[in-house]
Amino acid sequence: GLSQYSSDPRTEWDLSAYSTRDQVLEAVRNLRYKGGNTFTGLALAHVLEQNLKLDAGARLEAEKLVILLTDGKSQDDANLAAQTLKNLGIEIFAIGVKNADEAELKQVASEPLELTVYNVLDFPLLSSLVGTLTQVLCTRIKEKSNKENADIPVNTGPQLSPTDLKISAVTSKSMHLTWSPPLRPPKKYRIVYYPSKGGTPKEVVLDGAVTSLRLSNLTSHMEYLVSVFPVYDTGVGDGLRGVTSTLPLSSPRSLRVSELSHNSIRLSWKAAQGATQYLVLCSAAPDGAED
Question: Which residues does the UniProt record annotate as the domain VWFA (predicted)?
Fold first, then answer.
């Protein structure tokens, strides 16, 4: 599978899109370069959330490898996103070209770094890595496969996917999530949430025995997209998705004016729940309006 990224990641094709070497090479030849920014952390989150899913062709019994190719320093937190993948048993190889930050490549890549980090001065020199990288990748897959003789059945649905996501107790700053677990309990859950109009995705990782979560410190009067992914030793199952809006902040009510004089007025109102301060704005009436 392959994704390109700048400020927004884009899946070019899923793991299940092609079944022969020639088809993949033809897809590579037809690939159009995507220029722009370098949000590597967002791209790694995209790979986990979109590309390593069962319905995108990921197989639970197969080893999960991510090869990151970048020519610049990330403009967001690539290390945090990479650590999430590595904690789930996904191995990351980092390849830098031209202006890539080698220190960042070493942070993102899996151990041992002498096998997973590569850096070249220009794009044509990538061809010099092909033989070595191919051999290393194949060897790592064989080593990991020999260590993990997992016999997890390859199926989806209620066996490996949670159901019935409910969003309740919504306030201006928080909401409560609950869901029903799959028949086969996951090792962990990964909850991702972000404003639908754009914003940095945030995530929470929970133990697989937990089936509820309170999201707090949200923005008021904002629509949020929420996803719940089950995480197994060998991959990420199909997720649940929901959308809801936080409530607007409480407003003051019943504004009253009293004690008028030639240069002052007194205002009073009913309090707004949760308010810690008030901002009072006053301006003269427009020309021609009654005083």
Answer: 1-133
Q: Which residue ranges make up each domain of the chain?
A: 2-148, 163-246
2-148 is a CATH 3.40.50.410 domain: yes
For residue 273, the model assigns a pLDDT of 83
Low-confidence ranges of the chain (pLDDT < 50): 149-156
The reply to whether the predicted model has a pTM over 0.70 is no
Q: Which fold has domain 163-246?
A: Immunoglobulin-like (2.60.40)
The two beta strands, 202-207 and 188-195, are antiparallel
pLDDT of residue 286: 75
